[in-house]
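User: Hi! I'm working on a homework problem where we have to compare a predicted structure to a textbook description. Could you give me the structure for the chain below?
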Amino acid sequence: MTDSIDSSKDTFQRKCSIIISLIASMLLINNLGSQNASSSATFLNASAINTYGFYQAKTIRQNDLNISAFTLDSMVTIAGKGIDESTKKSILDQAEKFRLKAASYDSDVETGEGKKELLAKSKLAEKARDEAMEKGPYFDFAGLLLQLAIILISVVLITERRTLYLTGLTAACIGTFLSLDGFFLFIRLPLLS
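Assistant: Happy to help. Predicted structure tokens:
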């Protein structure tokens, strides 16, 4: 009878050890997802900031060109008849070139570097960044539950308390679910979003 109890105890301990190993493996995968989500959010945030910066630089350059064109027009108007026609035409042509160049900053489909295209790129980067950031709490809580499961099932090895075993398995299952949800966001939980 003692042999069967010892055999049952050994089988249970092996089972707990295997479960702990599986939970630890899931914890490693969870940590990888957490780091990837964090790195992705940081990269996408920098991308959005850089694209907005480029957009602002285009806007400033466009304003400078429009001010230059206005200044040249004003010079011709103020000088009036004091300027010969060829000089007047040259100044007005330069003003028109400035206006055309300024207008070209609004959209540039070929290079994708017009203000319209840059704004769209930065909005996409922001959206992707927000999604990457949304994954963080799922991985955080999953990691917490998986670590708790490892602790509880480790205690089971020492104390053989079945309630802790079931609690540890429950924490592991919920942690695994949250980790997978962190990767795929198939269910957005209100407390974590």
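For your comparison, note the following. The CA atoms of residues 41 and 130 lie 7 Å apart. The two ends are 54 Å apart (CA to CA). Good luck with the assignment!
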